[in-house]
Amino acid sequence: MNLQSMTGFARAVAEHEGTSIAWEVKSVNGKSVEVRLRLPQGLERLEPSVRQTVQKRFARGNFQATLTVGRAAGQQAQPVVNEAFLRDLAGLARRLKEQFGVAPATADGLLSLRGVLDIPETTETEEARAALDGAILAALEVALGGLEQARQGEGAALRSLLSGHIDAIEALTLRAEADPSREPAVIRERIAEQVRLLMDASANLDASRLHMEAAFLATKADIREEIDRLKTHVASGRVLLAGGGAIGRKLDFLAQEFNRESNTLCSKSNAATVTAIGLELKAVVDQFREQVQNLE
């Protein structure tokens, strides 16, 4: 399955019996599916269907959908002028001008008076309304298809980036595993040196007890578990990327696990080289998690 980003934009236009239909849809990052609509007056009835259509197609994202509908000239209601009332008003305006010198009345001023101009509501049969609704929802499907393609295009780019980050995490994990400071001989020498330093500082210390304590601390500082878990997480990440689909939440959890292991590796490290690897690992994990935030 393809990966999808949560950002994208698409537009679709259609025509139904002289009525123009245009949808513009866009999405940005979101924890779940949130839909905001801008519908023309009189088409609010479509809101539940539009929301349901978006929610069925996508798993995550904040969506904004704008519908524009343009009626053909023959479908628009023709204005009706109350000519008798208009004549009376025009005559009154002339008398006021002659008797009191008021400014002459204008045509737009007279037509704006209540009762002069009326635009009757158009009547629409149930069949015609259902047909228009169907055409609008069909155009929405086209727009959402375009949005899905846009999100998948960006998702493909993100897959490549995330795969590169996982490769880098694996390479750093293997470097930490192979670091010379983890060789048994080096560890033994480090423990012996620590014991010698302590014995030189105080002759009253028990050498055997010091060796036991040093060995215990060396065991606690071992990063074998962190390396093993990092390898497991790398394998899990590759499986998720290969499977595709809505894996954003799963990869976000995996990013948290990568971060936890890299932090522990740094805290347990007793060699500058391993600490440097751990810090570099944290930087890559931060980039990985930032990119994951954009995935559905």
UniProtKB/TrEMBL annotation:
Residues 185-296 form the Endoribonuclease YicC-like C-terminal domain. Residues 3-159 form the Endoribonuclease YicC-like N-terminal domain. The keyword Ubl conjugation does not apply. Keywords: Endonuclease, Hydrolase, Nuclease. Its cofactor is a divalent metal cation. Belongs to the YicC/YloC family. This is Uncharacterized protein (TIGR00255 family).
